[in-house]
Design brief:
alpha/beta; TIM Barrel; 8-stranded parallel β-barrel; 12 strands
Protein backbone atom coordinates (compact mmCIF):
# COMPACT_ATOMS: atom_id res chain seq x y z
CA UNK A 1 0.00 0.00 0.00
CA UNK A 2 1.49 3.41 -0.97
CA UNK A 3 2.32 5.99 1.67
CA UNK A 4 -0.46 8.50 2.16
CA UNK A 5 0.36 11.91 0.71
CA UNK A 6 0.74 14.48 3.47
CA UNK A 7 -0.30 18.14 3.56
CA UNK A 8 1.96 20.27 5.78
CA UNK A 9 1.43 23.91 6.77
CA UNK A 10 4.65 25.73 7.62
CA UNK A 11 4.65 28.35 10.36
CA UNK A 12 7.46 30.91 10.60
CA UNK A 13 8.08 31.66 14.27
CA UNK A 14 9.84 34.84 15.38
CA UNK A 15 10.48 35.16 19.11
CA UNK A 16 7.56 32.93 19.98
CA UNK A 17 5.00 34.40 17.55
CA UNK A 18 3.96 33.31 14.06
CA UNK A 19 4.74 35.92 11.43
CA UNK A 20 3.66 36.40 7.82
CA UNK A 21 5.74 38.03 5.16
CA UNK A 22 7.48 37.52 1.84
CA UNK A 23 11.12 36.39 2.00
CA UNK A 24 11.13 37.28 5.70
CA UNK A 25 10.49 40.97 4.94
CA UNK A 26 7.64 43.21 6.11
CA UNK A 27 6.76 40.68 8.79
CA UNK A 28 3.31 40.89 10.30
CA UNK A 29 2.27 39.17 13.52
CA UNK A 30 -0.05 36.30 12.64
CA UNK A 31 -0.78 35.00 16.09
CA UNK A 32 0.06 32.33 18.60
CA UNK A 33 1.84 29.29 17.12
CA UNK A 34 0.11 26.84 19.43
CA UNK A 35 -3.36 28.06 18.50
CA UNK A 36 -2.56 28.14 14.78
CA UNK A 37 -1.06 24.65 14.87
CA UNK A 38 -4.17 23.42 16.68
CA UNK A 39 -6.40 25.06 14.06
CA UNK A 40 -4.51 23.45 11.20
CA UNK A 41 -4.66 20.05 12.89
CA UNK A 42 -8.41 20.41 13.22
CA UNK A 43 -8.61 21.35 9.54
CA UNK A 44 -6.91 18.10 8.55
CA UNK A 45 -3.21 18.93 8.35
CA UNK A 46 -1.09 15.78 8.51
CA UNK A 47 1.94 17.45 10.06
CA UNK A 48 3.04 20.89 11.22
CA UNK A 49 6.42 22.46 10.48
CA UNK A 50 7.78 25.31 12.60
CA UNK A 51 10.64 27.38 11.22
CA UNK A 52 12.36 29.48 13.87
CA UNK A 53 13.40 32.68 12.09
CA UNK A 54 14.19 34.66 15.24
CA UNK A 55 16.87 37.26 14.71
CA UNK A 56 18.38 36.34 18.07
CA UNK A 57 19.31 32.71 18.64
CA UNK A 58 20.33 33.38 22.22
CA UNK A 59 16.97 32.58 23.74
CA UNK A 60 16.38 29.00 22.60
CA UNK A 61 14.06 28.52 25.57
CA UNK A 62 11.38 30.57 23.79
CA UNK A 63 11.20 28.07 20.92
CA UNK A 64 11.40 25.11 23.28
CA UNK A 65 8.40 26.51 25.14
CA UNK A 66 6.45 26.81 21.86
CA UNK A 67 7.30 23.20 21.01
CA UNK A 68 6.28 21.94 24.47
CA UNK A 69 2.92 23.69 24.38
CA UNK A 70 2.20 22.61 20.81
CA UNK A 71 3.10 18.98 21.51
CA UNK A 72 0.65 19.02 24.43
CA UNK A 73 -2.15 20.46 22.31
CA UNK A 74 -1.63 18.88 18.88
CA UNK A 75 -1.44 15.17 18.13
CA UNK A 76 0.06 15.16 14.65
CA UNK A 77 3.81 15.07 13.91
CA UNK A 78 5.71 18.29 14.57
CA UNK A 79 8.89 19.21 12.69
CA UNK A 80 11.09 22.07 13.87
CA UNK A 81 13.82 23.83 11.90
CA UNK A 82 15.99 26.91 12.24
CA UNK A 83 19.12 27.49 14.28
CA UNK A 84 19.85 23.80 14.92
CA UNK A 85 23.61 23.42 14.98
CA UNK A 86 24.38 20.44 17.20
CA UNK A 87 23.24 17.07 18.50
CA UNK A 88 22.47 18.82 21.80
CA UNK A 89 20.06 21.20 20.01
CA UNK A 90 18.26 18.20 18.54
CA UNK A 91 18.10 16.49 21.92
CA UNK A 92 16.48 19.54 23.53
CA UNK A 93 13.85 19.82 20.80
CA UNK A 94 12.96 16.12 20.81
CA UNK A 95 12.65 16.15 24.60
CA UNK A 96 10.38 19.19 24.32
CA UNK A 97 8.05 17.24 22.04
CA UNK A 98 9.26 17.65 18.45
CA UNK A 99 8.93 14.51 16.32
CA UNK A 100 11.41 15.57 13.65
CA UNK A 101 13.97 18.29 13.15
CA UNK A 102 15.00 20.02 9.95
CA UNK A 103 18.50 21.28 9.18
CA UNK A 104 19.79 23.29 6.24
CA UNK A 105 22.74 25.69 6.49
CA UNK A 106 24.27 23.88 9.46
CA UNK A 107 24.45 20.68 7.39
CA UNK A 108 26.11 22.52 4.50
CA UNK A 109 28.67 24.03 6.88
CA UNK A 110 29.23 20.69 8.64
CA UNK A 111 28.00 17.65 6.65
CA UNK A 112 29.13 15.33 9.45
CA UNK A 113 26.30 16.76 11.55
CA UNK A 114 23.90 14.71 9.41
CA UNK A 115 25.72 11.50 10.37
CA UNK A 116 25.92 12.51 14.03
CA UNK A 117 22.18 13.24 14.32
CA UNK A 118 21.16 10.15 12.36
CA UNK A 119 23.46 7.86 14.36
CA UNK A 120 22.25 9.27 17.67
CA UNK A 121 18.49 9.56 17.05
CA UNK A 122 17.73 7.61 13.87
CA UNK A 123 17.21 8.83 10.32
CA UNK A 124 13.44 9.04 10.85
CA UNK A 125 13.83 12.23 12.91
CA UNK A 126 16.09 14.03 10.43
CA UNK A 127 14.79 16.15 7.54
CA UNK A 128 17.35 17.73 5.23
CA UNK A 129 16.03 21.04 3.94
CA UNK A 130 17.43 22.12 0.57
CA UNK A 131 16.87 25.54 -1.01
CA UNK A 132 17.44 24.92 -4.73
CA UNK A 133 17.42 27.27 -7.71
CA UNK A 134 18.22 27.02 -11.40
CA UNK A 135 21.70 27.91 -12.58
CA UNK A 136 23.95 27.51 -15.60
CA UNK A 137 27.08 27.15 -13.48
CA UNK A 138 29.18 24.16 -14.59
CA UNK A 139 29.39 22.63 -11.11
CA UNK A 140 25.58 22.25 -11.07
CA UNK A 141 25.30 19.38 -13.52
CA UNK A 142 21.62 18.84 -12.64
CA UNK A 143 20.82 22.44 -13.61
CA UNK A 144 20.05 23.31 -9.97
CA UNK A 145 22.32 24.63 -7.23
CA UNK A 146 22.04 24.81 -3.44
CA UNK A 147 21.51 28.24 -1.87
CA UNK A 148 21.19 29.80 1.56
CA UNK A 149 19.91 33.13 2.88
CA UNK A 150 16.51 32.84 1.23
CA UNK A 151 17.94 31.85 -2.13
CA UNK A 152 20.29 34.83 -2.40
CA UNK A 153 23.61 33.14 -1.64
CA UNK A 154 25.06 30.29 -3.70
CA UNK A 155 26.79 27.43 -1.92
CA UNK A 156 28.63 26.21 -5.01
CA UNK A 157 26.93 22.81 -4.72
CA UNK A 158 24.87 20.83 -7.21
CA UNK A 159 21.42 20.33 -5.70
CA UNK A 160 21.06 16.71 -6.80
CA UNK A 161 24.54 15.69 -5.66
CA UNK A 162 24.04 17.37 -2.27
CA UNK A 163 20.65 15.71 -1.78
CA UNK A 164 22.10 12.29 -2.58
CA UNK A 165 25.00 12.89 -0.16
CA UNK A 166 22.68 14.06 2.63
CA UNK A 167 20.52 10.94 2.27
CA UNK A 168 23.56 8.67 2.18
CA UNK A 169 24.77 10.34 5.38
CA UNK A 170 21.49 9.54 7.11
CA UNK A 171 18.78 12.10 6.31
CA UNK A 172 15.46 10.26 6.40
CA UNK A 173 13.44 12.83 4.48
CA UNK A 174 14.06 15.69 2.04
CA UNK A 175 12.32 19.07 2.22
CA UNK A 176 12.87 20.45 -1.27
CA UNK A 177 12.34 24.21 -1.48
CA UNK A 178 12.22 25.77 -4.94
CA UNK A 179 13.65 29.27 -4.70
CA UNK A 180 12.55 30.00 -8.28
CA UNK A 181 8.95 29.20 -7.42
CA UNK A 182 8.84 30.57 -3.87
CA UNK A 183 6.14 33.23 -3.60
CA UNK A 184 5.12 33.00 -7.27
CA UNK A 185 1.92 31.01 -6.63
CA UNK A 186 2.11 29.52 -10.10
CA UNK A 187 2.68 25.90 -9.10
CA UNK A 188 5.42 23.69 -7.71
CA UNK A 189 8.68 23.19 -9.62
CA UNK A 190 7.86 19.88 -11.28
CA UNK A 191 11.19 19.56 -13.07
CA UNK A 192 13.11 19.95 -9.80
CA UNK A 193 10.90 17.39 -8.05
CA UNK A 194 11.33 14.88 -10.89
CA UNK A 195 15.12 15.27 -10.92
CA UNK A 196 15.49 14.69 -7.18
CA UNK A 197 12.90 11.88 -7.14
CA UNK A 198 14.77 10.01 -9.89
CA UNK A 199 17.80 9.49 -7.64
CA UNK A 200 16.43 9.61 -4.09
CA UNK A 201 14.12 7.05 -2.51
CA UNK A 202 13.36 8.63 0.88
CA UNK A 203 10.15 10.66 1.34
CA UNK A 204 10.23 13.95 -0.54
CA UNK A 205 8.40 17.09 0.64
CA UNK A 206 7.81 19.68 -2.09
CA UNK A 207 7.76 23.37 -1.16
CA UNK A 208 7.49 26.63 -3.07
CA UNK A 209 4.92 27.75 -5.61
CA UNK A 210 1.54 26.61 -4.28
CA UNK A 211 -1.11 29.09 -5.36
CA UNK A 212 -4.30 27.14 -6.01
CA UNK A 213 -5.82 23.77 -5.22
CA UNK A 214 -5.00 22.35 -8.65
CA UNK A 215 -1.26 22.96 -8.12
CA UNK A 216 -0.91 20.10 -5.63
CA UNK A 217 -1.70 16.99 -7.68
CA UNK A 218 0.94 17.65 -10.40
CA UNK A 219 3.59 17.78 -7.66
CA UNK A 220 2.48 14.37 -6.38
CA UNK A 221 2.54 13.02 -9.92
CA UNK A 222 6.09 14.38 -10.30
CA UNK A 223 7.18 12.39 -7.24
CA UNK A 224 6.41 14.34 -4.07
CA UNK A 225 5.23 12.37 -1.02
CA UNK A 226 4.19 15.47 0.89
CA UNK A 227 3.31 19.06 0.05
CA UNK A 228 4.26 22.02 2.20
CA UNK A 229 2.87 25.54 1.95
CA UNK A 230 2.71 28.63 4.12
CA UNK A 231 1.09 31.83 2.89
CA UNK A 232 -1.74 30.23 0.91
CA UNK A 233 -2.88 28.47 4.07
CA UNK A 234 -2.23 31.43 6.40
CA UNK A 235 -4.13 33.86 4.20
CA UNK A 236 -6.83 31.21 3.64
CA UNK A 237 -6.43 31.28 -0.15
CA UNK A 238 -6.56 27.49 0.03
CA UNK A 239 -8.21 25.12 2.49
CA UNK A 240 -6.48 21.89 3.44
CA UNK A 241 -9.79 20.07 3.07
CA UNK A 242 -10.09 21.22 -0.55
CA UNK A 243 -6.56 20.08 -1.36
CA UNK A 244 -7.32 16.63 0.02
CA UNK A 245 -10.54 16.41 -1.98
CA UNK A 246 -8.63 17.31 -5.14
CA UNK A 247 -6.02 14.63 -4.44
CA UNK A 248 -8.68 12.05 -3.70
CA UNK A 249 -10.41 12.90 -6.97
CA UNK A 250 -7.13 12.02 -8.69
CA UNK A 251 -6.88 8.68 -6.83
CA UNK A 252 -4.10 9.84 -4.51
CA UNK A 253 -3.96 8.07 -1.15
CA UNK A 254 -4.48 10.59 1.67
CA UNK A 255 -4.96 10.38 5.40
CA UNK A 256 -8.54 10.65 6.58
CA UNK A 257 -9.77 13.96 7.89
CA UNK A 258 -9.78 14.31 11.67
Amino acid sequence: MPLATRIIPCLDVDNGRVVKGINFKNLVDAGDPVQLAKMYAEQGADEITFLDISASRDNKETMLDVVRKTADAVFIPLTVGGGIKSVADVDYLLRAGADKISINTSAINNPDLINEISNRFGSQVLVISIDARRTSEKYATSGFEVTTHGGTKSCGLDALAWTIEAVQRGAGEVLLNSMDKDGTKDGFDLELIEIIRSKVSVPLIASGGAGKVSDFYPAVKAGANALLAASVFHFQDIKIEDVKKELQANNVEIRSQI
